[in-house]
Write a structure and sequence with these properties.
This is PKD domain-containing protein. Pfam families: PKD_4. The N and C termini lie far apart (about 90 Å). The protein has four helices and 19 strands. It is about 15% helix and about 40% strand. The protein is elongated and about 85 Å long. It has two domains: about 70 residues, Immunoglobulins (Immunoglobulin-like, Sandwich), CATH 2.60.40.10; about 200 residues, no CATH class. The strands form four sheets. Strands 8, 9, 10, 11, 15, 16, 17, 18 and 19 form a nine-stranded antiparallel beta sheet that branches. Strand 6 and strand 7 form a beta hairpin. It is an alpha+beta fold.
Length: about 325
């Protein structure tokens, strides 16, 4: 009986030793380490970003912040000079030289100017064109203080009206590119013409510049235009903008507290007429809505009678 108990005890101890050996063997096979991996955690305060490199088995870290600067710290803090869109990249490397890369997209301090130009990293600028689809806020207005709708035009403007309604679909093709450094480019496409005021064409070219007068009933046409090389633009976020108007005392009206775009030389966006400065009513990453002025009365040459309020979309 005593021998049977001894054998039982020996059996239990042997089984326990097998479990311990097995557990020890599992740990030893993996050497207690994880495979190389990396991830990024970040927090943002304005243009200041705190990065954390969440890695396993890495011995070195290499950061590219997307603005031409780098770091080898595991958890760097970086202050970007300009607001905009950036791709920050972390490359983690282990002792054997193997590496893994992770990246994160940042949108920092996105101002209307960054929305307009694409920011400092948009080396090709940001290109816009008049939206064929229009929006519920696109209409033909009087150039009065409230930009009231013009009675003779549909409100809102239906999609594609300049093509299907007026036979000037080429108006939707022209492209306008804004660069972060203030440069500006304008592409009038194959017809070499721009959306224009009809009266403006008669006054400045005697009518010789008119290419398509399909919008004559609304004082609109397309007219020959050669974009300027080396053109620039000026964006003002908030100003009191005074322009001519048949509705204003003394032939002028001031629009208070508006954002504006103006251009060098003869350049413009959207509509070529006597007034080249435009009001930005709204801007997002993909669309903006502009107020462009039109002088359409032979009794008041060069004085605004109307405004064309149109949505522009980004050219992808």
């Amino acid at each position: 009986m005593r021998k049977r108990h001894v054998n039982l005890i020996i059996g239990i101890l042997f089984s326990a030793s097998l479990v311990l050996v097995s557990c020890s063997s599992d740990d030893d096979d993996g050497n207690g380490s994880f495979p190389l991996s990396a991830d990024i955690f970040h927090s943002v305060n304005g243009k200041k970003v705190a990065f954390q490199g969440l890695t396993h088995s890495a011995t070195t870290w290499s950061w590219d912040f997307g603005d031409g600067t780098t770091s080898t710290a595991q958890n760097p803090v970086h202050v970007y000079k300009d607001g905009g869109y950036y791709d920050a990249t972390l490359t983690a490397t282990d002792a054997s030289g193997a590496s893994v890369t992770k990246d994160v997209k940042l949108a920092l301090d996105i101002t209307p100017y960054v929305l307009l130009t694409g920011g400092a990293t948009a080396t090709n600028g940001k290109t816009w064109k008049i939206s064929n689809g229009h929006s519920a806020n696109d209409y033909f207005a009087n150039a009065d203080a409230d930009l009231t709708p013009f009675d003779g035009a549909p409100n809102p403007l239906p999609g594609g009206i300049f093509g299907s309604g007026l036979g000037m679909a080429e108006v939707y093709d022209d492209e306008f590119t804004f660069y972060f450094d203030g440069d500006y480019k304008h592409d009038v496409k194959a017809d070499g013409a721009a959306f224009s005021g009809l009266l403006y064409q008669f006054v400045t070219t005697g009518g010789a510049g008119i290419v398509n007068d399909g919008g004559a009933d609304f004082g609109l046409c397309t007219g020959k235009y050669t974009p300027e090389s080396g053109a620039t633009f000026t964006y003002v976020e908030n100003e009191d903008f005074t322009t001519t108007s048949v509705y204003g005392p003394g032939g002028a009206i001031t629009y208070g507290g508006v954002s504006t775009l103006s251009f060098s030389g003869t350049e413009f966006i959207g509509l070529m007429d006597f007034e080249r400065k435009v009001i930005i009513q709204n801007i997002t990453d993909k669309s903006m809505r502009l107020v462009m002025f039109l002088a359409a009365s032979q009794d008041y040459i060069g004085v605004n009678t109307n405004a064309v309020i149109l949505t522009f979309e980004v050219v992808e």
